[in-house]
Amino acid sequence: MIQLYIPLNFLGVIYREIKQSLTDLDKMFVLMEKEREVSDRPGARALVIAPDAQADATVRFEDVSFAYEPARPILQHVSFEIPAGKTVAVVGPSGSGKSTLARLLYRFYDVQEGRITIGGQDIRAVTQASVRQAIGIVPQDTVLFNDTVQYNIAYGRPQATRAEVEAAARAARIHDFIAATPRGYDTPVGERGLKLSGGEKQRVAIARTLLKNPPIVIFDEATSALDSANERAIQSELKNAAQNKTTLVIAHRLSTVVDAHEILVLESGVIVERGTHAALLERQGRYAQMWAMQKSEAVPLL
Ligand code: ATP
């Protein structure tokens, strides 16, 4: 019996390994599928961000319209600017197109009308890789690779040293948690390794972004509420990571939007209100309504 058990057990391990690899491959194909949505123009050059050459990290959406499928427009004539180093926050109901704005800026898709520029350069005219090099993303659900903590944090800058990875993890306040595991930064994460909570995964993504140190940052704030102490802490780490960066925030919490240079209220792909927190409250429109609701019921912004 034992003679049979050992090979069967071994096969079980192999099966799990293969299944895991397939999960990773799956993710890779999903990513590759996205890659195929856009292709670089022949001879496309890299994006240039050099403040002294007046190509600073200002992001502009100019009259952008976009549809995933021709019959169903998602964004319609959207225009806004995020001056270099400033933050623009987007709020609005689920399905209004907030994440689509982020996907377009990261060039998962090309816009069908209008244009998006970084430092005055149309992002369709430069290489996709250089656009992505300039942007750090902290998504709602961070995909972690089945690899070590070190690999996952250094993902955006693989040549980073252990000391640099550790400094980023400290700033994202995930270092103590990592250091308390038996293998520290060599601990595998993911389905076969250390399981991380939503908040911890976000901290890994923040550490990744800090380490990459890109001029532009996109935050897709989690809708699911973390406990409030944890949430306040994450907010402050996010703020840290966005310091002096051109930042697009898809916001679900008032505390995130109050300091934004501009807040956009998106409904069915159209900007229906825009302005600073104070100006929008004064206007007593849609945003003021959302604000009142969140204040009274402590519910996230839509
Ligand atoms: P939420 O707050 O729920 O994340 P959102 O405002 O970010 O919503 P988007 O994710 O931008 O909304 O989606 C806008 C619309 O586009 C939705 O109706 C969605 O169903 C549709 N959509 C999103 N991705 C695709 C896709 N790949 N193909 C087709 N339609 C899509």
Automatic annotation (TrEMBL):
Compartments where located: Cell membrane
Please indicate which superkingdom the organism of origin belongs to: Bacteria
Q: Which residues cross the membrane?
A: 1-18
All copies of the ABC transporter domain together span 59-293
Which residues of the entire protein appear here: the answer is: 314 to 615 of 615
Q: What is this protein called?
A: ATP-binding cassette subfamily B protein
Write the lineage as a comma-separated list. Bacteria, Pseudomonadati, Pseudomonadota, Betaproteobacteria, Burkholderiales
